[in-house]
């Protein structure tokens, strides 16, 4: 697999055919095929108090870098609230989940290695199993951040 030619993306642009997951806003900025399979780069946004994916683990590494807002991370059995310029590292097979931990929108970047997270999201959107090289195991439901209203629309 080769690398892509150099390119520049504007803030509202994403790589072609690279929608992210369900339930929150995502845009892939780099695909595995851009980096010869080394990594993928995903930009994401969560609405106030919005839940992310449920507790899960997988056999690829992820680094979550918070750009704005407050994001609650469950890492194994511990919970942490991260703000701008803080990072959460999830080595492969680490149980984790996240959600917006406040009344303001939150956003961030996720680097996943090896590249190909976009293939996982495409399979899940299609109701299919992720590619064999990206095993994902769902361990529990999404969690709500401490202080979250019963219904996100109540905020």
Automatic annotation (TrEMBL):
Cupin type-2 domain residues: 44-111
InterPro entries: Cupin_2 (IPR013096), QDO-like (IPR053146), RmlC-like_jellyroll (IPR014710), RmlC_Cupin_sf (IPR011051)
Superkingdom in the source lineage: Bacteria
Pfam families xrefs: Cupin_2
Region feature Disordered, mapped onto this chain: 1-22, 132-155
Matches recorded under PANTHER family: PUTATIVE (AFU_ORTHOLOGUE AFUA_8G07350)-RELATED
Name of protein: Cupin type-2 domain-containing protein
């Amino acid at each position: 697999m080769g690398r892509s030619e150099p390119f520049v993306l504007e803030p509202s642009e994403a790589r072609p055919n690279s929608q992210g997951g369900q339930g929150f806003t995502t845009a892939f900025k780099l695909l595995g095929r851009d980096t010869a399979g080394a990594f993928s780069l995903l930009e994401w946004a969560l609405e106030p108090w919005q839940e992310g994916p449920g507790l899960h683990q997988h056999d690829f590494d992820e680094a979550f870098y918070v750009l704005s807002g407050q994001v609650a991370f469950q890492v194994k059995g511990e919970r942490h609230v991260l703000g701008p310029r803080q990072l959460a590292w999830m080595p492969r097979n680490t149980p984790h989940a996240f959600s917006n931990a406040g009344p303001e929108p939150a956003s961030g970047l996720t680097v996943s290695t090896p590249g190909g997270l976009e293939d996982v999201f495409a399979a899940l959107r299609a109701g299919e199993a992720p590619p064999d090289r990206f095993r994902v195991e769902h361990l529990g439901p999404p969690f709500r951040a401490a202080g979250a209203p019963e219904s996100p629309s109540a905020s």
